Amino acid sequence: MSKVKGLTLFSTMILLLLAACGSNENTSIKLGEVTRSLFYAPQYVALEKGYFEDEGLDVELQTVWGGDKTMTALLSDGIDVALVGSETSIYVYAQDSNDYAVNFAQLTQTDGTFLVSKEEKPNFKWEDLKDSNFLGQRKGGMPQMVGEFVLKQHNIDPHNDLNLSQNVEFANIPSAFASGDYEYVQLFEPTASVFEKEGNSHVIASFGEESGHVPYTVFMAKQSYMEENTENVEAFTRAIHKAQQWVQETAPEEIAEVIQPYFEDVELDILTSSIDRYKSQGSFATDPILDEEEWNNLNNIMEEAGELPEGDIPYNELVNTEIAEEVIND
After folding, report:
1. What span, in angstroms and rounded, lies between the C-alpha atoms of 162 and 132?
2. Nearest 5°: phi and psi at 127?
3. What percent of the chain is modeled with pLDDT above 70?
4. May I ask which residue range the UniProt record assigns to the signal sequence (predicted)?
């Protein structure tokens, strides 16, 4: 064999080898989360422990900051999968979208906010809130709707019995509460625990415990993406389920150590206590299935808040449980 033919054959073999290696590259998925929150601990576990990579996925996480912005990014193909409140899928569907968002894997199953007071309330009763200055969440978002639902369960009309403020951006709520003359606020962890540790405020009740199970934060994708990338969605769901099981079986201290890279400004003891608080009230879903009872509870909460769109809100169209059921039965 001539040197030229030998070099040509060698080059061809190298190209074929590179092509074969390239075919084994992970599939890229752009994931957008509505905010950065340790409420989403299983998601960060899946990223840090390599569960997505094990499924052949390269998941690129970005924080979009806000339900409206997250859904805009999803519908415009800026992201492939959104982690956001399932109410947003209802809003999109009600606008007669031709390519609506489908919920396929539930991550959290309770509200994640806590009632925080600037003053100690050792004998707190819900009626103590009446006539108080209350810093609420964004109108139409899950925290505010669940908050209103719980208050009404305790015979408090949030718009008539409180001095309710809803004009502060989500990301600015903690600082607004700290610097303003508000007496109460709804806060997620770890902010609630940080405020408590600093002695500025006190956690006095849990909206998650009061409101019951609800599909609070869910992974969703456009209908077209689900149809065209079924295997990727299944792989994504398997990774999430593996993380859910690990979180369920693991002590808060170890979970905190794993997800700390996503919360570099939060002390480890705060992360640990916050995770323990969420675990103890069953906030982290133990499997990715969004069942119909939870969906109906969401609808009741939205209707009570005056935010449920008119017309049919079909569970069977907006929720795909087949993938999650297949994953947990593997």
Report:
1. 6
2. -65, -15
3. 93
4. 1-19
Greatest distance between any 2 Cα atoms in the chain: 94
Q: Computed over its alpha carbons, how large is the radius of gyration of the chain?
A: 23
Q: Which CATH number fits domain 113-211: 3.30.70.100, 3.10.50.40, 3.40.190.10, 3.40.50.300?
A: 3.40.190.10
User: Each residue of 112-126: pLDDT tens digit?
Assistant: 999 999 999 999 999
Task: Tell me the C-alpha distance between 250 and 260, whole Å.
Answer: 15
CATH number among 3.40.50.1000, 3.40.190.10, 3.20.20.140, 1.20.1250.20, domain 26-110+214-328: 3.40.190.10
Half-sphere exposure of 36 (CA within 13 A, CB side): 13
The CA distance from 112 to 241, in Å, is 20
107 within 8 A of 215, measured Cβ to Cβ: no
Contact 111, 207 (CB under 8 A): yes
Q: Is 222 exposed, middle or buried (0-12, 13-18, 19+ CB in 10 A)?
A: buried
- Domain segments of the chain as ranges: 26-110+214-328, 113-211
